Known about the structure:
By secondary structure, the protein is an all-alpha fold. Helix content is about 75%, strand content about 0%.
Amino acid sequence: MNVFKKEMKANLKSLIIWGCAQVFIIFAGMMKYQGFADSKVDINALFDAFPKEIMVVFGLGSVDISKVAGYYSVFFLYFMLLAAVHAVMFGAVVVSKEERDHCADFIYTKPIRRFQVISPKLLAGVVNILIFNMVTFAASVFFIAQHNNGDGLIDKVSLTMLALFMLQLFFLALGAMFGAILKNTKRATAVASGLVMGFFLLSVVVDLYDKLAFLTIFTPFKYFEGAALMINDQLSFNSAAILLTVTLIFFGLTFVAFSRRDLAT
């Protein structure tokens, strides 16, 4: 429990910064929506004139972005990216930072097993991403309500946040696994962050080229679509099952790799 409290306290400032960044993205996005609404411009016609490549990069598909739900669904792509980077960085650092800070010999030579130290660290990670998720939810409902006659679309946003949390868990486990396997914290964060961007770019490529649709399963950014969640109220059970299974495998590998690792002091 002391390890859990220590990690929560140590990462409080970082969590506040990430949370504020997410709130700002939501605020700025909904203000842009209000700007379009006030200008009486046909948003759909405006964006239809853009090249397909630009539409894909910005997450604009066939949804009606003149409606709040459709417009908000576009932001799910950015929520995923920001949340993924936050989670994977936390996972990579929290597992290996004692070696980076040269205090591993003090912590891991105590009369407790390694998993008794790693477990509260990962629990702190889960709590951190959950708080980040709740901040995203609260900000989303609040700002949507400001531009939707008081209706915050709570049911739709709740489903979206559930999908987002599963993605956060996946990336937390991914970062933790690399933090346990690799001997250097900087290398672990670099590799894990690189994979995040790789997954993201792969999702863009899949959208651009229909012939590469079979690669969808290799990028978690395609497991849940903002439009399906916000407009159709659909969360893919198969995608959720695959993502959670892989997440559990990554957490398991984290424990195995760390228990067999020679610690640098």
